[in-house]
Protein: Replication restart DNA helicase PriA
Amino acid sequence: MILHYPCPNCGAEMTYDIKKGKLHCGHCSGEIALSSIIQQSTSWTAEGGTSTEIDGKILAGAEYHCPNCGGLMITKDKETSTMCAYCGAPMILTDRLTGKRRPAKLLPFQLDRQDAEKAFRKWCRNGRFAPKGFTSAENIQRLKGMYIPYWLFQFDTRVDISAQATNVRIFRQGDYQVTETEFYDIQRAYKLQYKDIPLGASRQLEDGEMAKLEPFNFNELKTFDMPYLAGFDSSSYDFDDGELSPSAKDKVRKYAGDYAQGAVSGYSTVHLNGHTVNFEREEEAFIFVPIWFVDYNYHGKVYKFMMNGQNGRIAGTPPTSRGKMAVWWAGISAVLFIITFIGSMI
Ligand SMILES: [Zn+2]
Ligand SMILES: [Zn+2]
Structure:
């Protein structure tokens, strides 16, 4: 099933406008607030697809027809929203966004296409070293806003810390200096709650790549709703909560270790024997986080530009054109030569 938002005034396809936080019609400039769409959701059409969700699993290779132009679309693996390849209409594949695969929350984009293009040009140093194709208008147009699947974990833990500590007191007694050492065996238990532990759930982007874009500010999470996806790519998770839970727990063990290091204080010396972490309660939520993305194949290698759609943090390495680098160095040495030459004349 495909959901899209034809403009009530002119019928053109509406997309979500990041700066306005509303659906916007590029044709007649009509706008609709999300709150009114949510109320009217039954009047919007979802049509033209085959059901692909069985028991929370997505079947690959499902075919959909664009409700705007009728064009046939073969979906990519876990795709949940995209633009029609023929007419550019936003398409939201609602049957892949049901049950467990419906995100509980989403971080809406704060930075729009203009912001992303500006950051991309700056990142390429305005094309000084990058090959021509990379900074071409055509490539910049390929920049797309994507929602990436994440799992957010929350744990209630009991952390037991065992330590030995001493208190040393030095004082004079007659002709003697006395050193008095008190020894303590310390056992402490803490109830610690760890919130918003994020784990990337997409195979398309490696966890390390996404980690460079973090942190995301999860205080700004909004309840998920379909209109947020109008005009953006998104995909469902490749890894479910069960698969990622052990990695989330590893993160918590590390945080608990850091906590244990500083937990016992107020003594002359502290030696930590160790700590144990017991997980007493676990909760998880499937969410979408926003990035701007473009990849580029240059001399057989894929280069990626990725920008956090919330705070503008950037990851990736731009390709450098050897020809352009050589010209730049030649330019520098010529300048140096001239300066030296004038210097020696004076
Ligand atoms: Zn319109
Ligand atoms: Zn179309």
Confidence is low (pLDDT under 50) at residues 41-55. The first strand starts at residue 2 and ends at 3. The pocket of zinc ion (ligand 2) is lined by residues 66, 68-69, 71, 84, 86-87, 89 (CB under 6 Å).
